[in-house]
Design a protein that fits this description.
The complex is a heterodimer of chains A (803) and B (345). Chain A is α+β, with helices and mostly antiparallel strands and 803 residues long. Chain A has six domains: 66 residues, Phenylalanyl-tRNA Synthetase, Chain B, domain 1 (2-Layer Sandwich); 111 residues, Beta Barrel (OB fold (Dihydrolipoamide Acetyltransferase, E2P)); 203 residues, Phenylalanyl-tRNA Synthetase, Chain B, domain 3, CATH 3.50.40; 66 residues, 2-Layer Sandwich (Phenylalanyl-tRNA Synthetase, Chain B, domain 1), CATH 3.30.56; 201 residues, Bira Bifunctional Protein, Domain 2 (BirA Bifunctional Protein, domain 2, 2-Layer Sandwich); 88 residues, Alpha-Beta Plaits (2-Layer Sandwich), CATH 3.30.70.380. In chain A, strands 30, 33, 34, 35, 36, 37, 38 and 39 form an eight-stranded mixed sheet that branches. In chain A, strands 3, 4, 5, 6, 11 and 12 form a six-stranded antiparallel sheet that branches. Chain A is elongated and about 130 Å long. Chain B has 345 residues and is an alpha+beta fold. Chain B folds into two domains: 90 residues; 232 residues, Bira Bifunctional Protein, Domain 2 (BirA Bifunctional Protein, domain 2). Chain B has a seven-stranded mixed sheet, sandwiched between helices. In chain B, a hairpin with a 2-residue loop joins strand 7 and strand 8. In chain B, helix 1 runs antiparallel to helix 2. The radius of gyration of chain B is 43 Å and the shape is rod-shaped. The chains are: A alpha+beta (803), B alpha+beta (345). Chain B: Its cofactor is Mg(2+). Chain B: One of its GO terms (cellular component) is cytoplasm. Chain B: Keywords: Aminoacyl-tRNA synthetase, ATP-binding, Cytoplasm, Ligase, Magnesium, Metal-binding, Nucleotide-binding, Protein biosynthesis.
Chain lengths: 803, 345
C-alpha cells in the first residue's frame, strides 16, 4: 500500500510531521513502513511552459523547434516527442534542473539549433511507465490549459509529495485504504477524522426503474448495491485525481474508471462500473458460474469458469467475474452515457479461490480476500455517485438497487484491565486504557471491572481479549514493557542423551578431519534411492519446482558426492565431508514417511600430506574404515562391529562392505565405482553411510572400571600362510575363539602377498597377548593356550605357520 | 723406582692431555690406572722392596695415582661437555620448517549458530525438542491457528506431498506436537531444524533453510517475560551492550505479535551498512501464544499463557560473519566451511 502523505492529510491532521518521522511513528505502533519515497526526487527548475510555436527542425525529421513561454521569458527548446504541438501547456525542465536518475539539463545545440531546456514526459520525472496515462505513454505530458507558465510543475503533478510504502501483514487489511491509514494515524496522534463528502442532487428518476437485481448465491455475495448514473461525460479526470491515482500505483484511464479506483483507494471498497446500455437486459443476476462457461475479461483474455466461481450476469451471460475483474462486453467506453456502479460484499474465500484459479490478482481481489468493511459498501457507492456527478457531469438516479443480508454488527469483546496488565506484565491504568480505546475510535464502556468494547467493523482482526491486549500495548508503546524473566519452578534444562551423543559424534568426526556439510533434502527421483540402506517407497512432491528437487532423499551420499565434485572442480586436493541428516522412507500408517537420522561421510584425495618429511598418503578404504571403527569405539559398540563384503550399485564391487553391529546391518562403506568416479571427474573417493539413529539408540553397557593389573603380559607373534582369498577377519575370529580366557589381545601387524609366496597364498602375521590379571603366567600355560590357537587355525582355516 | 714412578706420571699426564675424545681418554684410563696398568704393577711389585720402604713408596704411588686420576677426571668432564656440545650442534634444526599438521574439520556455520543458541537457552532451563520435517497440514498450519483458506497461508508457499502432508514451512509444528504430548503441563523448549518453502534459490532465498524457535508455557507467563528473555539472548549472542526494541507485527499463532530489533552490533546504533543506516537490525519474530493455539492443544488459555519466538540461523550467521549469499550455506565449498574453524569467546 502506497500512501501519499499529502492525500492522507485531507482525512487527518498529521501535525505537519516530516514524513520520515511520521513513518517511524507508524512503524513503531503497528504497521511497518517499508520505505519513505520522495516523489520530487529533489527536482528543481521544472516549470510549466506554453508552446507558442512549434516547427520542424530543418536538419532533423524527428525534432521540433519550439518557442516556449516559461514565465519570465520565451525561449527556444528542441523537442523530439511526436505529440508536441503549439498551444500546449507542457512541463519544462530548465537549464540547471536535475531529473531523477541524475540527468542534468544544460543549454545545448541540437543539429545547429539552440535548445534551452527539455520538454518532459512523466517518465522523465520519475513516474513509472506503467502508470502514465496511455495517451501520454509515448510522448510528453500535456498539462491542463489552466496551468500558468513559469509556475513550478511539481505541485500540479502531485510530485511535491512523499509516499509511505506500508508493508501490511494479512491482519491489517483495514489499512488497505486511505481512510484506514487515517484512522491509524489519528490513533497515534490523537486526532479526529475528516470524512470525504458524498453529496449530490438526485434525479427524479429512480434507479429501480432502470435496473433489477437478484442474487442466487447469497452466501458468497451477501450484499450488493447498484447505483445508476446517466448522462455521464467520459473524459480525462482532473489532474489532482490522476496524480493521486498514480501516487497510489494506479494508471488513470477515464473519469468513470478513475472514480471507481479512487474510491477503492479511499475506502478500501472495490467498485465496478458497467456500461448500462451494453448490459442489454435491465437486470443483474449474481450466481455461480456454470462449468465451462466463458467470459472475456477487461484484459482481453478469454477465461473458462468453474461452478465455484461467482459471476455477475445480465441474466443471460456473465458480465464480470465477481470481485476479480470485469467483462469486456460491458466495459465503459468513450461513448458510454449511463453507468451502473457496483459496490458489493463478496466473501473472501470465494474471491480467493476464483482469483487463484485464474491467476488473476487485482487491487479489488486483494481487498475482498482479506475482508472489506461491511459498513462501507453503501458509503463507497454514495461517494462514487457524488464524484460522478461532480467530475463526469452525471445525473444520479434516486436511490439504489440493493440486496442486503450482510451482518454488520460489530464484534463485542469483554476484557478486564487486570487481564491486560497480567498478559503484559505491566500496570497500565484504566484511564490510560480507555484513552487509547478512544483514540482508536473503538466504542467502549468500563463497568464492573471490565471493559466492554465494540470493535469497529473496519477492524475485522479484533475479536478476542488478546487482540485488545495488543491494541493497548502497541499504542501505549512496547518500549514501556519492563523486562522480567519467567517465574516458575526451576528445573534443569539440557540435551537428551540422543542429542548429547549426536554432538559427540559430530565432534569426533571433526576431530578426525571431516568438515560438516549440510545438503538439500530434496533431490531428483532418479537419485533419491541411490545408496539407500533400505528399500522403501519414495516420497514425492505434488508440484515440484524442478525435476532436480522433486523427491525426498533416502541416502545422504548423492548430495555429498555432488559437494565433492563441486570442490574437486575448484582445485580442492582433499575433500573430507560428513553430514548428519534425515532420510525419508516410504509411507507409514500416519501417512508421513519414516524419517531416519543418518550419518554419511565422503573422503577423496590426500589423507596425509606432510611432504618435506616424506609423509604422504592418499585416502583409501581403511582410512574411512578406521574412522568408523573409532566412532563405534566412542559409542561403546566396537566389540559388536563387523564388516562383510557386499555389492552395492554405484560402488566398487571388490571394495564395499556392509557394516553390522551384533549381526544387524547398520550401514555401508565402500569406494565409489570407478566408472562413476570417471563420470564425475573425481579422484578415488570413499563413502560411508550409517543409520545413526539405530547406532545411537543401541543399548550400551555402563562404563565400569577394570583394575589395572600389576602382573606382566606375554606376547607371542605368529606368521601364517593361508589362501589368498581367506579373510583376515575370519582368522582373527578363530584366534579369539580358540585362545581361551588368557588371550587378551590379537593384533594384525603384517600382511604379505607377492614374489616370495607360493602362488595363491599370502602371509598374515598376528601378535597375540596372553595375560592373567591375578598372577604372572608360566611358560607352560602360554604354550598350551598358544598351541590350541595354532591347532584351530590349521584345522579351520588351513593355516600353516610360515617357516 | 721413584724415578720410574715420576716418568709414568709424566707419560700419563701427557697422554691425558693428548686425548681428544672420551674414548681415547678411557683408553688412557685403562692403560695407566686399570688393573693391568703400570701403576698397579708398581704396587704389586712393592713386595720386593724392603719392609721399611714399603709405606713410603705405597704413599707415593697413591699420590701419583690420585694426581693422575684427578687430571683425568677433569679432562673427562671437559671432553664430555665437548661431546655434548658437538651432538647438540649436529642436532640443531630449522625451527621455521612447517610442523606436521593436525587435520581437523569443523562445524558447519549454521550448526555453530544453532548450538550457540541451544546452549544459551539450555543454561536457562530449556530442553531441545525436535520433530519431523515432513508434516501434517494439521500441525504445520491448523493447530497454529491457520485454518485452510486463511490468508496468512500465502505468507508461506509450501511443498505439498499430498493434500494434507507437506514439508514443514517452519519449526512451529514441533511446538504444536510438544504441547499435545505435554498434556497441559508447563513447557520450556527450543526447537531447531530444517524447514522448506517454495522459493527460487537466490542470494537471499533458499528453498531449504534453518529455523530455531522457542516456546515457554506456564502460569502467568507475561509479555515482559518474553522481552526479558529476548534481551538476555540478544546480549549473550551479540554483545553485552546490545539493546532490543519490539515492534508490533503479525503471526497467526501469537497475539500480540512482535518483531525484535537489536541495536546494530557493528556501529552501535549510529548507522552503517549492516543496519542499513537505521541503527537497528531485525533479528526475530515473537509473541504471546494465541489462545486458539493453546486451546487446540488442550491447554486452558484462561489458566496458562505462554510466549514463543523464532529466528533464522542463516540470517544470524549472515549478519554475524558478513556472509552475503545464503547459497554459500548449502554449496559446501571447503574454502567456505573451513573458515569457521576457530573458536570465539
Amino acid at each position: 500500500m502506497l500512501v501519499s502523505t499529502k492525500w492522507l492529510a485531507e482525512y487527518v491532521n498529521t501535525h505537519g510531521l516530516d514524513p520520515k518521522e511520521l513513518g517511524e511513528k507508524i512503524t513503531r505502533s503497528g504497521i511497518e513502513v517499508d520505505a519513505v519515497i520522495d516523489r520530487s526526487h529533489g527536482m528543481t527548475n521544472v516549470v510549466v511552459g506554453y508552446v507558442k510555436e512549434c516547427m520542424k527542425h530543418p536538419e532533423a525529421d524527428k525534432l521540433n523547434i519550439c518557442q516556449v513561454d516559461v514565465g519570465e521569458e520565451t525561449t527556444q527548446i528542441i523537442c523530439g516527442a511526436p505529440n508536441v504541438a503549439a498551444g500546449q501547456k507542457v512541463i519544462v525542465a530548465r537549464p540547471g534542473a536535475v531529473l531523477p536518475g541524475g540527468i542534468k539539463i544544460k543549454k545545448a545545440k541540437l543539429r545547429g539549433e539552440e535548445s534551452n531546456g527539455m520538454i518532459c514526459s512523466l517518465q522523465e520525472l520519475g513516474i513509472e511507465g506503467r502508470l502514465v496515462p496511455k495517451a501520454y505513454a509515448e510522448g510528453i505530458y500535456v498539462l491542463p490549459e489552466t496551468a500558468t507558465p513559469g509556475e513550478s510543475a511539481l505541485p500540479l503533478l502531485g510530485l511535491d509529495d512523499t509516499l509511505l510504502e506500508l508493508g501490511l501483514t494479512p491482519n491489517r487489511s483495514d489499512a488497505l485504504s486511505m481512510l484506514g491509514v487515517a484512522y491509524e494515524v489519528g490513533a497515534i496522534l490523537s486526532e479526529d477524522m475528516k470524512y470525504p463528502e458524498a453529496t449530490y442532487t438526485e434525479s427524479s428518476e429512480k434507479a429501480s426503474d432502470y435496473l433489477s437485481l437478484r442474487i442466487d448465491a447469497i452466501e458468497a455475495n451477501p450484499m450488493y448495491v447498484a447505483k445508476v448514473v446517466k448522462n455521464v461525460q467520459i473524459k480525462e479526470s482532473p489532474l489532482w485525481l490522476q496524480h493521486r491515482l498514480m501516487a497510489a500505483g494506479v494508471r488513470p484511464h477515464n473519469n468513470v474508471v478513475d472514480i471507481t479506483n479512487y474510491v477503492l483507494m479511499e475506502y478500501g471498497q472495490p467498485l465496478h462500473a458497467f456500461d448500462y446500455d451494453r448490459l442489454e437486459t435491465k437486470e443483474l443476476v449474481i450466481r455461480l458460474a456454470n462449468d465451462g462457461e466463458k467470459i472475456v475479461t477487461l484484459d482481453d483474455q478469454e477465461r473458462t469458469l468453474k461452478s465455484n466461481h461467482l459471476v455477475i450476469t445480465n441474466g443471460k451471460e456473465p458480465v464480470a467475474i465477481a470481485g476479480v475483474m470485469g467483462g469486456a462486453n460491458s466495459e465503459v467506453h468513450d461513448g458510454t452515457t449511463t453507468v451502473v456502479i457496483e459496490s458489493a460484499y463478496f466473501t473472501g474465500g470465494s474471491v480467493r479461490q476464483t482469483s487463484k484459479d485464474h491467476n488473476l490478482r487485482s487491487d479489488a481481489s486483494a481487498r475482498f480476500e482479506k475482508g472489506v468493511d461491511p459498513n462501507r459498501v453503501i458509503l463507497a457507492a454514495e461517494r462514487a455517485a457524488s464524484l460522478l456527478a461532480e467530475l463526469a457531469d452525471g445525473e444520479v438516479l434516486a436511490g439504489s438497487v440493493v440486496v442486503d443480508e450482510l451482518d454488520k454488527v460489530p464484534a463485542e469483546v469483554v476484557v478486564s484491565p487486570d487481564f491486560i496488565n497480567n498478559r503484559l506484565g505491566m500496570k497500565i491504568s484504566l484511564e490510560d486504557m480507555t484513552s487509547i480505546l478512544t483514540r482508536l475510535k473503538f466504542d467502549h464502556q468500563a463497568a464492573n471491572g471490565y471493559l466492554y468494547i465494540k470493535a469497529p467493523t473496519r477492524r475485522q482482526d479484533i475479536k478476542i481479549p488478546e487482540d485488545i491486549v495488543e491494541e493497548i500495548a502497541r499504542m501505549y508503546g512496547y518500549d514501556e514493557i519492563p523486562m522480567t524473566l519467567p517465574v516458575e519452578e526451576s528445573k534443569p534444562g539440557g540435551l537428551s542423551s540422543y542429542q548429547a551423543r549426536r554432538r559427540q559424534v559430530r565432534a569426533y568426526l571433526e576431530g578426525a578431519g571431516l568438515y560438516q556439510a549440510i545438503t538439500y533434502s530434496l533431490t531428483s527421483k532418479e537419485m533419491s534411492q541411490k545408496f539407500a540402506l533400505e528399500t522403501a517407497p519414495v516420497t514425492e512432491l505434488l508440484m515440484p519446482m524442478s525435476e532436480e528437487r522433486s523427491t525426498l532423499r533416502q541416502s545422504l551420499i548423492p548430495h555429498l558426492l555432488d559437494a565433492v565434485t563441486y570442490n574437486t572442480a575448484r582445485q580442492a586436493d582433499t575433500v573430507a565431508l560428513y553430514e548428519v541428516g534425515s532420510v525419508f522412507l516410504g509411507e507409514t500408517e500416519s501417512g508421513l514417511p519414516h524419517e531416519q537420522e543418518h550419518l554419511a561421510a565422503v573422503i577423496a584425495g590426500k589423507w596425509l600430506d606432510h611432504s618435506w618429511q616424506g609423509e604422504k598418503k592418499a585416502v583409501d578404504f581403511f582410512v574411512l574404515k578406521g574412522i568408523v571403527e573409532g566412532l563405534m569405539e566412542l559409542l561403546g559398540h566396537s566389540k559388536e562391529l563387523t564388516f562383510e563384503r557386499t555389492v552395492v550399485d554405484g560402488l566398487h564391487p571388490g571394495r564395499t562392505a556392509s557394516i553390522k553391529l551384533a549381526g544387524e546391518e547398520i550401514g555401508l562403506i565402500g569406494q565409489l565405482h570407478p566408472s562413476e568416479q570417471k563420470m564425475r571427474d573425481l579422484k578415488e573417493t570413499y563413502v560411508v553411510e550409517l543409520n545413526l539413529a539405530k547406532v545411537i539408540n543401541k543399548e550400551v553397557e555402563a562404563l565400569y572400571y577394570a583394575p589395572v593389573s600389576k602382573f606382566p603380559s606375554i606376547t607371542r607373534d605368529i606368521a601364517l600362510v593361508v589362501d589368498s582369498e581367506k579373510a583376515t577377519g575370519e582368522l582373527q575370529a578363530i584366534i579369539q575363539l580358540s585362545g581361551g580366557r588368557l588371550l587378551k589381545g590379537v593384533h594384525l601387524f603384517d600382511l604379505y602377498e607377492g614374489e616370495k609366496m607360493e602362488a595363491g597364498k599370502k602371509s598374515v602375521a598376528f601378535s597375540l597377548t596372553y595375560f592373567d590379571p591375578e598372577r604372572t603366567l608360566t611358560d607352560e600355560e602360554v604354550v598350551n593356550a598358544h598351541n590350541k590357537v595354532l591347532k584351530a587355525l590349521a584345522e579351520q582355516a588351513g593355516a600353516e605357520l610360515r617357516g | 723406582m721413584e724415578a720410574q714412578l715420576q716418568q709414568l706420571k709424566e707419560e700419563a699426564l701427557q697422554k691425558i692431555e693428548a686425548s681428544m675424545n672420551v674414548k681415547e681418554l678411557n683408553d688412557v684410563r685403562v692403560a695407566y690406572l686399570g688393573k693391568k696398568g703400570p701403576i698397579t704393577d708398581l704396587l704389586k711389585g712393592m713386595g720386593k722392596l724392603p719392609a721399611e720402604e714399603r709405606p713410603k713408596m705405597g704413599a707415593l704411588v697413591n699420590v701419583v695415582r690420585e694426581e693422575v686420576t684427578e687430571v683425568l677426571e677433569a679432562r673427562m668432564t671437559l671432553l664430555q661437555d665437548q661431546a655434548i656440545q658437538e651432538q647438540l650442534e649436529k642436532e640443531s634444526i630449522d625451527v621455521t620448517l612447517p610442523g606436521r599438521p593436525v587435520k581437523t574439520g569443523n562445524h558447519h556455520p549454521l550448526t555453530r549458530v544453532v548450538e550457540e543458541i541451544e546452549d544459551l537457552f539450555i543454561s536457562m532451563g530449556y530442553e531441545i525438542a525436535e520433530g519431523p520435517e515432513v508434516e501434517k497440514d494439521y500441525y504445520n498450519f491448523e493447530a497454529l491457528n491457520l485454518p485452510k483458506g486463511h490468508p496468512a497461508r500465502d505468507m508461506q508457499d509450501s511443498f505439498y506431498i499430498s493434500e494434507d502432508i507437506l514439508l514443514r514451512t517452519h519449526t512451529s509444528p514441533v511446538q504444536a506436537r510438544t504441547m499435545e504430548a505435554k498434556e497441559g503441563k508447563p513447557i520450556k523448549i527450543i526447537c531447531p531444524g530444517k524447514v522448506y518453502r517454495r522459493d527460487n534459490d537466490d542470494a537471499t532465498h533458499s528453498h531449504q533453510f534453518t529455523q530455531i524457535e522457542g516456546l515457554v508455557i506456564g502460569e502467568n507467563i507475561r509479555m515482559s517475560d518474553l522481552k526479558g528473555t529476548l534481551s538476555v539472548f540478544a546480549k549473550k549472542m551479540f554483545g553485552e551492550d546490545r539493546e532490543i526494541r519490539l515492534r508490533p507485527s503479525f503471526f497467526p499463532f501469537t497475539e500480540p505479535s512482535v518483531e525484535m530489533d537489536i541495536s546494530c552490533f557493528k556501529c552501535g546504533g549510529s548507522g552503517c551498512n549492516v543496519c542499513k543506516k537505521t541503527g537497528w537490525i531485525e533479528i526475530l519474530g515473537a509473541g504471546m501464544v494465541h489462545p486458539n493455539v493453546l486451546e487446540m492443544a488442550g491447554y486452558d488459555s484462561k489458566k496458562l499463557s505462554g510466549f514463543a519466538f523464532g529466528m533464522g540461523p542463516e540470517r544470524i550467521a549472515m549478519l554475524k560473519y558478513g556472509v552475503e549469499d545464503i547459497r554459500h550455506f548449502y554449496t559446501n565449498d571447503v574454502r567456505f566451511l573451513s573458515q569457521f574453524h576457530r573458536t570465539e569467546v
